[in-house]
Amino acid sequence: MAEKQAHLNGAYYGPSVPPAPANYRSHRRSSGCGCGCCLLKLLLKIIITLVIIIGLAVLIFWLIVRPNEVKFHVTDVSLNEFNLDGNNTLHYDLAVNITVRNPNRRIGVHYDRIEARAYYEDQRFDTQTLPSFYQGHKNTSFLNPVFKGKHLVFLGADETADFNEERASTIYSIDVKLYLRIRFKVGSVRTGRFRPKVSCDLKVPLSAANATFSTTKCDWDF
């Protein structure tokens, strides 16, 4: 009879039992952007789309209308008097002929206000308000401001020396500037008002000297 094994006090001496697998919860980091980032991307797409639409609209408008700059030229002047007396009072008699050419086929111009100003050595000595008018397509209009009178001017030593030199040469550096209030018309649509300035830098001969005046192009200044 086999010998009965002795009690082992509850101990187990069989093969080793593997440990229970640890229960780790995987924490995934959320990929992609948050709500704020998505909104930013959406806003950026909307802005890019609007820029493209506006750019296409401007391109189509330009291709259809083909806008060109209205051109101002001083074609003739008449200076009968330009004299500075001992009291720094400038006596003047100046007439200016200005042509305004609108070369556009589809754009008209409303000249709601035209203010012509005459300057010598950056000092304004006269202002004339000219009649308002509408200028149609491919049209040439004429402005004829006349400056006549006297005005106190304050010339320093350098400006006075320049005046004396010009009096000896009988050719004066006079600036005529047009301060405009205009609207453009395309078809039946009128734009809002713009307030540009047109500057004409002139070399004006005294009429008594029988010198020739050269046609002078004026410059826009928006």
Automatic annotation (TrEMBL):
Bilayer disposition of the protein: Single-pass membrane protein
Keyword terms: Membrane, Transmembrane, Transmembrane helix
Entry's transmembrane regions: 46-65
GO cellular component: plasma membrane; plasmodesma
Name of a matching Pfam family: LEA_2
Source superkingdom: Eukaryota
InterPro entries: LEA_2, NDR1-like
Late embryogenesis abundant protein LEA-2 subgroup domain span: 98-200
GO biological process, one term: defense response to other organism
Cellular localisation: Membrane
Keyword Transmembrane helix among record annotations: yes
Protein name (Swiss-Prot/TrEMBL): Late embryogenesis abundant protein LEA-2 subgroup domain-containing protein
Species this protein is from: Gossypium raimondii (Peruvian cotton)
